[in-house]
Amino acid sequence: MIIVNTATVEGYNMQTLGLVQGSTIQSKNMFKDMGAGFKSMVGGELTAYTKMMEEARELAIKRMIDKANALNADAIVNVRFNSASVMQGAAEIMAYGTAVKLIKE
Predict the structure, then answer these.
(1) DSSP character for 53?
(2) Closest CA to 21 of 55, 59, 54, 50
(3) Residue 23 contacts residue 39 (beta carbons within 8 Å)
(4) Distance CA 35, CA 26 (A)
(5) CA distances, 11 to each of 2, 7, 21, 62 (Å)
(6) Considering the entire predicted model, what is its pTM?
(7) Residues of the chain above pLDDT 90, percent
């Protein structure tokens, strides 16, 4: 599966199959939240949250790819990410793009 944030894939024409998206909502446990709260008072990277967001992005991408595979897509173009805070300590990550069938020029 080719995944790009551009509108085209060089060397191919495309047949649009439709919008595909994948999302997840992730949170850390209360004790890690407390540790992150203390860390935010003194500054520095909140590594538990960084790891949580990396895992969430990977899961959102996987779910988006699964939906593209269900459409027999060869690629997903115009891939974008969106994130939103759902509640304190929980965030939603969404990956979305256009599933396409590639046709060699």
Answers:
(1) H
(2) 59
(3) no
(4) 17
(5) 13, 13, 25, 25
(6) 0.82
(7) 64
